[in-house]
Amino acid sequence: MAVTTHTTGAPPLPAHPDPQLDAILGSGLPHELSYALDGPFHLLMPDRFDANAAAFKQALTEAGVEGRVYYAKKANKASAWMDRCALSGTGVDVASAGELRDALGHGVRGENVVITGPAKAEGLLRVAVLQGCLIAVDALDELERVIAQAQATTRPARVLLRRLPPAQPHSRFGLDDQELTSALARCAEAGERIVMEGFSFHLSGYDTRARADLAGELVDLCLKARVLGLHADRISIGGGFAVDYTAAEHWEHFLSEQRPDDYHAGKSFAVSDFYPYHSPVAGPDALRAILTTNDLAGRLREAGVMLLLEPGRALLDRAGCTVFRVQGVKDRPGYGIVTVDGSSLSLSEQWFNSEYLPDPVLLPAHEPQGEPYAACVGGATCLESDMVTWRKVRFPARPAVGDLIVYPNTAGYQMDSNESPFHELPLPPKVVLDTAGGTTRWRFDRHPLA
Prior knowledge:
alpha/beta; about 30% helix
């Protein structure tokens, strides 16, 4: 079949230009690592994490707001981020005993950890109280368990009361108005066993105004709590800071032009299920928008309330990529099927019944030959549904065995949310790149056999 019949495909959706990543991909290092590791792997760039955290802190400073940034650990399991948090004083948001052990084990101080999640395990609460962590209390019975732990350990428990968002009344997270009133009274009654430091919320979506409006309500709640003799000097607005993966024109063109024929087997996705890969207000700029809405920054300063935030994906923006090696290419009418040496479990957007859309990059092992070639990308398992990319991506040439396919900007939620050694395929190791001093060195994030 002539190669020229494989030049159609889905509308392109290139990631934003990234000269640092381009230099790494052009250095030959990915091919060396692919040969050495004999399988897929993830590349991590901790310097990007540092820069993102610093940018959020700068936005707080510009607004004259006292605040603290906590990295939402669920976004990526790598220990490299814990090392960076420990060194910079960035906080960590955890929701399990394992996450807490990992943070503490890498030097993050307990006072810099916030414990979130619903119905927390008893062991997690015990260690959190002992280490002086800040606990976001999600329910009245959980508050009683925290008080009991404080009494048993003779250490005061630091807590936030999590508010059920009025605009999302069906959320399974938070205390409604009646529960919040009861919780405040119980905190006042508990005396020295509880230090009620303020309030938090879990709000789905990326609407900066909705987040600012609810933050303003929490400021008012802090003032009311102080009347009861409670400390109440901080609020947490959680995460929900969008990441901007691609330019507006590419995103708009993709959404308007993509069709079921652009996907293998006529697969279709609801546009509403796609992550918003372009966001005009993202990352630290989203924080700036929140702080300027209704003069939230001014209200925080006037009330003496500290602002806590828990970004995950936004701290990992451009901090990593995922690399697969081509194992085979199969021609089909109008497009090809590329099979790589891993599975879609290592690119987790399918968890959300969606697809990771920024275009993968082809790194040929040799000088590419021929015309542009459209192909989907499948995993090396025996499942029809194991598609790393359902889209018929327009590659610059027909991929060949031994070529690499690199998915950019995958550190946030893509690398390990769904990982599984299915078929006894090893989990892709995480390789940490150190670019200090103008050279690039690498190491494993954890031992690959651990």
